[in-house]
Model the fold of this input.
Amino acid sequence: MALFMDAHTLEGGVTVADVAAAHQADLQTQGKYGVSYLRYWVDEAAGKIFCLVEAPDAETANTVHREAHGLVAEEIFTVVEGT
Done:
Protein backbone atom coordinates (compact mmCIF):
# COMPACT_ATOMS: atom_id res chain seq x y z
CA MET A 1 0.00 0.00 0.00
CA ALA A 2 1.12 3.50 -0.76
CA LEU A 3 0.56 6.64 1.27
CA PHE A 4 -1.17 9.63 -0.37
CA MET A 5 -2.09 13.18 0.57
CA ASP A 6 -5.03 14.57 -1.35
CA ALA A 7 -6.22 18.16 -1.63
CA HIS A 8 -9.73 19.50 -2.12
CA THR A 9 -10.91 23.09 -2.57
CA LEU A 10 -14.53 24.03 -1.92
CA GLU A 11 -15.58 27.49 -3.05
CA GLY A 12 -17.20 29.53 -0.29
CA GLY A 13 -15.40 27.76 2.53
CA VAL A 14 -16.14 24.61 4.48
CA THR A 15 -16.84 23.70 8.10
CA VAL A 16 -14.93 21.20 10.20
CA ALA A 17 -18.27 19.55 11.02
CA ASP A 18 -19.03 18.98 7.33
CA VAL A 19 -15.58 17.50 6.76
CA ALA A 20 -15.96 15.26 9.82
CA ALA A 21 -19.22 13.90 8.35
CA ALA A 22 -17.57 13.29 4.97
CA HIS A 23 -14.65 11.54 6.71
CA GLN A 24 -17.09 9.24 8.52
CA ALA A 25 -18.65 8.37 5.15
CA ASP A 26 -15.15 7.56 3.84
CA LEU A 27 -14.54 5.27 6.83
CA GLN A 28 -17.80 3.43 6.16
CA THR A 29 -16.92 2.95 2.46
CA GLN A 30 -13.15 2.34 2.49
CA GLY A 31 -13.10 -1.34 3.52
CA LYS A 32 -14.44 -2.77 0.29
CA TYR A 33 -11.66 -0.99 -1.64
CA GLY A 34 -8.73 -1.88 0.62
CA VAL A 35 -8.25 1.80 1.52
CA SER A 36 -7.58 3.39 4.92
CA TYR A 37 -8.30 7.09 5.42
CA LEU A 38 -6.03 8.04 8.34
CA ARG A 39 -6.34 11.79 9.07
CA TYR A 40 -7.57 15.04 7.61
CA TRP A 41 -6.87 18.75 7.98
CA VAL A 42 -9.17 21.66 7.23
CA ASP A 43 -8.72 25.37 6.44
CA GLU A 44 -12.33 26.49 6.84
CA ALA A 45 -12.00 30.01 5.42
CA ALA A 46 -10.02 28.93 2.36
CA GLY A 47 -12.23 25.89 1.74
CA LYS A 48 -9.19 23.60 1.76
CA ILE A 49 -9.27 19.98 2.89
CA PHE A 50 -6.27 17.63 3.00
CA CYS A 51 -6.64 13.88 3.55
CA LEU A 52 -3.95 11.33 4.41
CA VAL A 53 -4.78 7.90 3.05
CA GLU A 54 -3.23 4.48 2.53
CA ALA A 55 -4.45 2.95 -0.71
CA PRO A 56 -3.38 0.62 -3.50
CA ASP A 57 -3.27 3.65 -5.83
CA ALA A 58 -4.51 7.23 -6.09
CA GLU A 59 -7.55 6.41 -8.21
CA THR A 60 -8.81 3.86 -5.70
CA ALA A 61 -8.48 6.46 -2.94
CA ASN A 62 -10.56 8.88 -5.01
CA THR A 63 -13.11 6.14 -5.75
CA VAL A 64 -13.86 5.96 -2.02
CA HIS A 65 -14.44 9.74 -1.89
CA ARG A 66 -16.63 9.58 -5.00
CA GLU A 67 -18.82 6.80 -3.62
CA ALA A 68 -18.93 8.04 -0.02
CA HIS A 69 -19.85 11.70 -0.62
CA GLY A 70 -18.93 12.83 -4.13
CA LEU A 71 -16.15 15.23 -3.11
CA VAL A 72 -13.19 13.97 -5.14
CA ALA A 73 -9.75 15.47 -4.74
CA GLU A 74 -8.35 17.89 -7.31
CA GLU A 75 -4.80 16.79 -6.51
CA ILE A 76 -3.32 13.61 -5.03
CA PHE A 77 0.35 13.32 -4.04
CA THR A 78 2.32 10.22 -3.17
CA VAL A 79 4.04 10.91 0.16
CA VAL A 80 6.51 9.19 2.47
CA GLU A 81 6.19 9.51 6.23
CA GLY A 82 9.14 11.23 7.85
CA THR A 83 10.48 10.76 11.33
